[in-house]
Every structure is written in C-alpha cells, then in structure tokens.
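Worked example 4.2. Below are the chains of a multi-component assembly; read each line carefully before continuing.
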Amino acid sequence: MSLPNATPSLFTYFNSIQKISSNAEEALKAISFLIETPKNKHVQEIGQTCRTYYFVTAGLARIYYLKDGIEVTEYFAFENDMIIRAESLFTGNPSKKAIQAIEKTKLIGIPASKLEILFNSFPEIERLFRKIMEASYVSYVNRMESLQFHSAEERYIQLISDFPELLEKIPLKHISSYLGITQVSLSRIRANIR
Amino acid sequence: MSLPNATPSLFTYFNSIQKISSNAEEALKAISFLIETPKNKHVQEIGQTCRTYYFVTAGLARIYYLKDGIEVTEYFAFENDMIIRAESLFTGNPSKKAIQAIEKTKLIGIPASKLEILFNSFPEIERLFRKIMEASYVSYVNRMESLQFHSAEERYIQLISDFPELLEKIPLKHISSYLGITQVSLSRIRANIR
DNA sequence: CCGATCCTTTTACATTTGTTAAATAATCAT
DNA sequence: ATGATTATTTAACAAATGTAAAAGGATCGG
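Applying the procedure described above to all four chains together yields the following structure tokens:
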C-alpha cells in the first residue's frame, strides 16, 4: 500500500538532504509503503534477500545477527535513519541479518526495484540516494574508528552521551553487543563509572 | 593536468560497475588528473579539507591519522580502490587524516566540484558514483562486523588470507593498527600461529 | 498476586591485550 | 661497508575483557 495523506517527516528530512521537486516527491511517495511493527517484531527475517530500503519514522529498530547462537546487534536506527541490510541489498545475496523493531515502530519501505526505475526519470531522486549513501558511509567510517581506537568504556560513554534515550529504550544486552563487548563486561564498566 | 592518452584500467573497472557512454567517459577523463607519488610521500596532509576523490591505479596507499602521537592506519587502498577522506569530503570539515603512498603509487584524482557539475549533465556518472558509494559502504559494514566480533587473531588471519601481498608490502606496525591492536600484540599473534 | 521468564549484576578465574623496556633484525643514508 | 635509524620480536607485568555460574531484579501472563 502506498502512503496515507499525512506527509511523514521523513520527506522533510529528505528535502533537507537534497531538495526534490514535488513531482519527484509524489513519485517517491507512490512507491513507498508504511509498516507499523509492534515491539520485538521482525521487519525482515534472517535468510531473506533484502530488496527494500527502510527508514524509521517513529520508534526504534535494530539490525542483528547470530554469532555462535548469540544475538549480536550491528546497528540501531532512530527517527529518519535508514535501515538496510546493505550486504544483501547491494549484492543480491541472502542476508545473515534480521531487522527487528525494538519498540512499537513505524517504518517507510521503498522497494529497490521500483526505486531504480524512478532513478531513470528523476535524477534528483538518485542524487538524494547518493547523498544518503555518503552520509551512511561517513557514519560507518566514524563507528569503525571508534571501535578500532577507543576502549569499551570510552565507546559506552560516547554512546550514551550521543543517545541518552538509548538506556531507557534498549536492553543493555543489545547495547553491549553493539559496543563489541559482552554483557558482563558492560556491567562492570557501568559499575566502574558510577 | 588531465589524463594522458593511455586509458587507465580504472575506467575499465568503472564500466564494470556501471556502463557509461563514451561521451561520459571522455568528460570524466577530462576532469581527472594523474598523480605519481614516491614511496612514503603524502598525497594529502592532515588538516587539509578534502575536495578530491582519489583512486589507486597502481601501487598502494593508506589513510592514517595520529592518536596520542601514534600513527593509526584506517584504510589500505589497492588497485582500483577508491581512497577518500569521507568525513571531510562529504562534510566540508578539515580532515584529521592523511593519505600516504606506501610504495611508489599512481593515483587518479577527480575534483569533487567538477564531478558535481558532471553529475548534472551525465546522470550515468552520478549513478556510477552512487554505486561506488554502495560498494564502499558494504565494505565498511563488513569491516566493522569483523572488528566487532572477531578476535584480533581471526582478523589477522582473515586479512592475510584476503591480501597475501600485504605482508611483503606493508610494515607490520601499519597492519597492527589497521587491525585495531598494538604492534606487540600482533607480534605475539604471529608467534602463536607459527 | 504468583510463578516463570528474562534482564542485569556480581564473583571468580582464564585469556587476551596493553605497556614499557630491552634485545634483535632489517633498512637506509653516507 | 658502517653507523644510524627504523622495524620487529621478546619479556615481564598490568589492565581489560571473556567465560561460566550464581544471585538479584524486573517484567509479564495468567
């Protein structure tokens, strides 16, 4: 189903990245669909091939996968954040990862196949998505830098300073694996800095 | 200076990502320039704002920065690899990082300002760069996954299995910081698996 | 409210990695 | 070639993180 009338703030956000004509915006909305997911429900399951760009418009979602049977959180997405399983979407391979709503969450989905057709008629939409990719790339470069050269304690302090709301919304076990450490280790760090 | 006549293999590589017309290719070549850098010479210094996309066409380069006075290698670029200081190029902020040739290296530089003008007349070039960004994004997602959830020993073994030539070409101290560990720790790991 | 389940912390110990310093080994400029 | 510089390894000890198990806390459905 395409989008209801109410213009989601996502498109305001899109326009702040790359101004697009109302024609282009309508075309983009026409291929978009809205999903509402209850807490803990999966948006996409492990093993599926990803053919959709998702953006969180309300709530909070994560990407995770299983390492030795343990859930490992790779990414959190807040309002306006893109959430894609890139290693599947951009290669066509099935994804080892899942997308899950952490709380009641609204997402806008954009099918890659339809989007690619729009790219042909609306270069401005392709530009928008190029810029979104650039910004996502930068955020991964920065995250890698943080993993490579900051201690777990520094990473934790940075994370909760960037996203104070995380602590109320996300179980610590997700936060620990996101930081690349065990739950026990995170508990120790929290005890230390208290 | 724009490119000499000999078509660098980089453009063959570009065409394998996104077929572009010969018009577009000529336009892209017209704004590109070739750099030859001797071993250990900097292509870009710390503190400069990055306004150029670089691609390695021969040799080998790295991005590094200083953490507590110690050089930390963030990225290695081999033939056909893009090498950009994204956190500067895509934000306009001065970069804390440097690009340095590890051996005698040839690079093709493409000024961002001129490229953006080309994007307006050649959507296929914009598409090419969108796809390059996608691929770069995927490679950073994968690297982050490796840093987050594999031991230093696993990461080292994986790295030399992916790029066996690294060991002959790159000092171990660069490899250790790339892996997110100290030189001493890498030495121990190497002694262990021998 | 109650028991079951899940989340978080704590403890004790093992392993990995960091730090500092020294010893070799390799490389480079003269 | 020779000495100086740089790179790598080794050693000893400190600090950080992992593992396993247990104990509290919190949450949820009935």
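Take a moment to check your reading of the output against the notes. Chain B has nine helices and eight strands. The first helix of chain B runs from residue 9 to 17.
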